[in-house]
């Protein structure tokens, strides 16, 4: 398809606004539907003046279905952001029900769309969305994505700061999940060698890089601009793949066979090849060092809990 409607749920928020703008600048998008419980019409009117050819429309409370109808891609940054001292998991109580409700709207209005979850905790909100889609009989594991692009963006940026290289030339493999110790950078696969304390510090910075932003924003939220960039990059990759480009690879948190049988971990982030129907091929984790294996062991244990928490939430609060 060359005409692509993209919907953003939570479009008037800190992430939603720059994400909307970046997608307005993307020539692959033909129609932008901006939905939020407050403020979307204003954001839409503003962005609609940008002189690219796509159309933009804002939708308020009660208009989610209208916004979603015909969408090929839906990005969901709706929800509350972190305050200092909070982990992504602390957001669960508020964001779980927001994502559940929006997932219901998507399952009914655009069951075939690619759904990109940005609302945290992604390790749980992706399983929540899957459970909602399953309950409506429309779950397609190839089209549900947790956006983990920012972890790889940070991993590349941070290594380039240490090595004094161009971050655009750094590509670091990051696997696992999208929260703290579940984020596992596999430096050994990128030809970059760090040792001892420097390696520990690097890994911690990639895992907890989001906290630097939360702290610097002084109680007013978490990463919005860099997250918007990451979300826009992921959407662009999906659009490229949908429009026929081959070999498009992005890291993302998806329904994955990699650790299903061995660890009972049903969703996992790794590099994924995207095609016109979503997930085409899930790259295996590959060779890891002993150090990285230890990180993976912690990740898998945490992830299992995060996933089960999301699934249990939907069972108990359908
Ligand atoms: N439906 C639609 N929009 C909603 C809903 C809902 N049920 N609930 C909240 N929103 C909207 C808010 O009105 C707001 O405009 O979501 C937006 C969230 O924006 P911010 O509060 O600025 O939060 P932001 O920094 O964008 O982060 C949103 O993304 O990365 C994650 O951890 C982050 O979970 C957080 C989410």
Secondary-structure topology with pairs:
Blueprint: E1 5-9, H1 16-24, E2 31-35, H2 40-48, E3 55-59, H3 64-68, E4 73-76, H4 92-109, E5 114-117, H5 122-135, E6 144-147, H6 149-163, E7 173-176, E8 183-186, H7 196-216, H8 225-242, E9 248-255, H9 260-263, E10 267-275, E11 278-282, H10 290-316
Parallel strand pairs: 1-2, 1-4, 2-3, 4-5, 5-6
Antiparallel strand pairs: 6-9, 7-8, 9-10, 10-11
Adenosine-5-diphosphoribose is lined by residues 9-10, 12-16, 36-38, 77-82, 91, 95, 98, 101-102, 118-120, 221-222, 224, 227.
What does this 3D model show about the protein?
The chain has 318 residues and is α/β, with parallel strands linked by helices. The protein contains ten helices and eleven strands. The strands form two sheets. It has a nine-stranded mixed β-sheet with strand order 3-2-1-4-5-6-9-10-11, sandwiched between helices. A two-stranded antiparallel sheet has the order 7-8. It starts with a strand and ends with a helix. Adenosine-5-diphosphoribose is lined by residues 9-10, 12-16, 36-38, 77-82, 91, 95, 98, 101-102, 118-120, 221-222, 224, 227.
